[in-house]
Amino acid sequence: MKRMKVGVIGATGMVGQNYVRLLKNHPWFEVKYVAASPRSAGKKYEEAVAGRWLMEEPMPEAVRDLIVGDANKVDEAKKKCDLIFSAIELDKEAVRKLEEDYAKAGFPVVSNNSAHRGTPDVPMLIPEVNPGHIEVIDSQREKRGWKKGLICVKPNCSIQSYVTPLFALIAAGYKIEAVIVTTMQAVSGAGYPGPASLSMIDNVIPYIKGEEEKSEIEPLKVLGKLINGKILSDKSIKIAAHCNRVAVIDGHMACVSVKFKGRKPSVEETKKIWKSFTGEPQKLDLPTAPKEAIIYREEPDRPQTRMDRDAWGAMGITVGRLRECPVFDLRFVGLSHNTVRGAAGGAILSAELLRAKGYF
Ligand code: NAP
């Protein structure tokens, strides 16, 4: 299959660099265009990120000499690529408009930015959980008059570690009434340079602006239903989130207590459900799909951030410590890599699903 030409806007940032790295040998997509702020525009990519290439592996040769475009100028992407991955950081109104302008110009846009997460005709995908939501794109295109363009977004970087295991239980017929989740989120989640080292070392900060709201609201849309051209959130589930910034580089961990409505699964049955759970990316054998949709670790002290964040190329969702909860019904710990599964890798998996389903 001929590789599709893709552009990364926000290519110089933390998530953008991960796109560049992860797409290096991708069988379906090839980075042909990079763009960022006017500060970086006009420079070679290598120069634009000089001194701030944060990936452990060297910069791919194929992108070093690409001239960075101005992400605000849609015309600069034309003729250079056919799909846009968006990892720009700007005020939300500006991002909403800019992503719509790219879609209007015929580009499918797969975004990490939160600007369009609440838009009812924009799917917010965890491909193992709500692959059917991509059908809302048919209404999105019809309503907005877009023929080839579309917008699809990824949810917040921490939620797949608990929404995927919760969804597996819902898919097995259980009803969830309430969830309390406490996250321990890596500093890379704040982008580069992130919080000052003197704020982070020897410390935990019990506040991440806007994060608790996202962690409580976004799962409801992901678990929602597509009705009459809109995704309607499942408001029957109550979620309370406590989000903490901790001194790890990558990997968001979540400690979760769950209360069921009516019948509740036992610990043994829950493990069985998680171990056998499989999603559309696994069924379609998408290039970036982890082989297991949920990895269950039996050791009493796993998952651990450093040990488990890179499972299945950092696309794995690792769960463990499942036990009864004396206040709710069950409790467990979930973990996923925030800049890969929670950002660039998750968006690449969404793009693979969109392509496999014929949306471009
Ligand atoms: P980042 O490291 O701060 O990178 C921001 C990017 O946006 C850079 O490429 C920057 O270009 C570009 N940019 C800044 N101002 C711009 C402007 N005026 N016009 C056009 N481009 C501009 O941020 P990040 O962590 O990669 O996050 C990118 C997006 O992904 C954010 O919306 C974030 O919320 C979301 N996200 C992040 C994570 C994570 O774990 N980090 C996870 C999920 C989602 P210059 O280099 O030229 O300034």
Care to describe what's here?
This protein is of the alpha/beta class. It folds into two domains: 4-156 and 343-356, NAD(P)-binding Rossmann-like Domain (Rossmann fold), CATH 3.40.50.720; 158-336, Dihydrodipicolinate Reductase, domain 2, CATH 3.30.360. The protein has 13 helices and 15 strands. The protein has helices at residues 14-22, 45-48, 61-64, 92-104, 136-144, 160-171, 197-200, 211-222, 267-276, 280-283, 305-308, 311-314, 340-356; strands spanning 4-9, 29-36, 69-70, 83-86, 108-111, 150-153, 175-185, 204-205, 225-227, 230-232, 238-246, 252-261, 295-297, 318-324, 330-336. Helix 4 links the parallel strand 4 and strand 5. Helix 1 (14-22) crosses helix 13. The protein starts with a strand and ends with a helix. The model has no long low-confidence stretch (mean pLDDT 97). Bound molecules: NADP nicotinamide-adenine-dinucleotide phosphate.
